[in-house]
Design brief:
heterodimer; A: 236 residues; mainly alpha; B: mainly alpha; 3 helices; rod-shaped
């Protein structure tokens, strides 16, 4: 296989990599077990019945999406402090994957809504909030695409990511939660209120950790690609 | 649709959302349906596809860096 010159020049100390093979297989087994347990082992929720398994995919996506977007802010802060482009590369990787998870949480949420509420989309406060968040981070990538200079792009998007991060917990949890407490939303907060069956909670947490593992794997690969792109950009 | 009456009742009464008790994850031992088996199969196939694609990508990037 031909080696791209920009990749071949990567110093050994900074070479990123994916996930070691044993961890890859562990992740495969855990997520496969989660799928099996979600559908056939753990009890279904009263009132949700056969819709229950979506819980183990929708909620971990949302939680890890939030972690990803907040991680992007942490890396952005590190870039502004140290002015080292590796932090910007990590920030954009974290934001991309955080956004991907948020979109998947929205899609699985719409599937759940179709089963539980009868419609795919009804502009529930939770749904509206996630749309605003997705648009906010869509603008982050639009901003990056509009700045030519690498350093300016990194600095501007880092500031944007830090400001946008303030809205992440507000839009993903705090505001929709209090709206629901006022009785104006259909979205449940069973985990927040500690009302979940311990077996279901255990599976939900296992699933969340597994999806976090998948996030880490994708993140490391994305950073590897990002660094190769950076080197090519420098060479040009 | 089952959630709508609860939300409507809440909006009218101003009380705590009534579906809390219903949605409390107490467990339901209803038998699994054929639909669930099919959806579980599709979910697993999607995961298998993602996993194999990730393995391929991982190997390719490691190859490039070698």
């Amino acid at each position: 296989m031909a080696v791209h010159p920009s990749v071949a020049r990567a110093p050994a100390a900074t070479r990123p990599f994916g996930l070691p093979a044993p961890l890859q297989w562990l992740l495969f087994l855990v997520l496969s077990a989660v799928i099996y347990a979600a559908f056939f082992v753990v009890p279904q929720a009263i009132g949700l019945k056969e819709l229950t398994p979506i819980l183990y995919f929708h909620v971990p996506m949302a939680w890890n999406g939030m972690i990803g977007l907040l991680l992007a802010a942490v890396y952005s802060g590190l870039y502004l402090k140290r002015r080292d482009l590796q932090w910007d590369t990590k920030a954009v990787a974290a934001a991309e994957l955080g956004l991907l998870y948020c979109v998947l949480a929205t899609v699985t949420g719409a599937m759940w809504a179709r089963g539980a509420w009868g419609v795919w989309w009804n502009w529930d406060p939770k749904q509206s909030a996630i749309v605003v968040l997705i648009l906010l981070y869509g603008a982050y990538f639009a901003l990056r695409g509009s700045v030519e200079t690498r350093d300016s792009r990194a600095a501007l998007s880092a500031v944007y990511a830090l400001v946008a991060a303030v809205t992440v917990p507000l839009l993903m949890h705090i505001i929709p939660y209090y709206i629901e407490r006022m009785g104006l939303s259909l979205h449940p907060y069973t985990v927040t209120r500690g009302e979940m069956d311990p077996r279901m909670l255990a599976l939900l947490l296992t699933s969340s950790v597994a999806f976090l593992g998948l996030y880490v794997w994708m993140f490391r690969l994305r950073v590897a690609v990002g660094r190769a792109e950076d080197r090519r950009e420098e060479a040009e | 649709m089952t959630w709508l009456p609860w939300a409507a009742a809440t909006a009218v009464s101003g009380a705590a959302p009534p579906y809390h008790d219903v949605a409390r994850m107490a467990g339901d031992s209803s038998p699994r349906t054929l639909n669930m088996l099919l959806v579980a199969g599709v979910t697993f196939i999607i995961w298998l596809g993602v996993f194999l694609y990730m393995r391929r990508l991982d190997a390719k990037i490691k190859d490039l860096q070698a």
